[in-house]
Design brief:
Helices cover 47% and strands 15% of the residues. It contains eight helices and eight strands. The longest helix is centred in the last third of the chain and has 24 residues.
Amino acid sequence: MDGQTITAAPVLILLGPPGAGKGTQARMLEEKFGLVQLSTGDLLRAAVAQGTEAGKQAKAVMDAGGLVSDDIVIAILRDRLAEPDCAQGVILDGFPRTTVQAQALDTLLAENGQRIDAAISLEVDDAAMVTRISGRYTCAACGEGYHDDFKQPSQPGTCDKCGGTQMKRRADDKAETVASRLEAYHAQTAPLIGYFDDKGALTRIDAMGDIGDIAADMGAIVKTATAR
């Protein structure tokens, strides 16, 4: 058309275990590139709240205590991708989780002339992640965060921010729980990483370094993807 090239909105996928920093990095990419982060949980809640056809189906399944099927999730995602704010591109967080879901996503994107432009895997050291997550605790009064190794209050047991003396830890931040979640993540995601690698879409990033350095690496990947 008059020498112009129509470029489909880029689709990026974030992979990484709990605590790898996916949420933080996604927010930074949103701000810098105008992308929209889409997480499965948020999509389901929004569709149910809006009462869309797919949302009604999802609500019925969840109310019955079941797991929402891939077909319903894809239908919800199809509706969401059609909304105007997704025109600049999206970051998918938490979907796909299996190769079957990835194949269904490929089919959906092909309908819109899109594709998975980049699958970014945030790589972590499992032992270091267990230490990072299991050492976290917060002030029960104001929510200020602390860590056994990296950030203790200046006066033990007393919050620097509000002076509170009650601290709490999340039950799922226990070392054994974190290690189990990491093991489950690797088992579940290994085939998916292979899938994206075979398609030439996978990029691995060391997620154990400085947040700013990680953001710069991810930004370079996004620039390449959006220039295609």
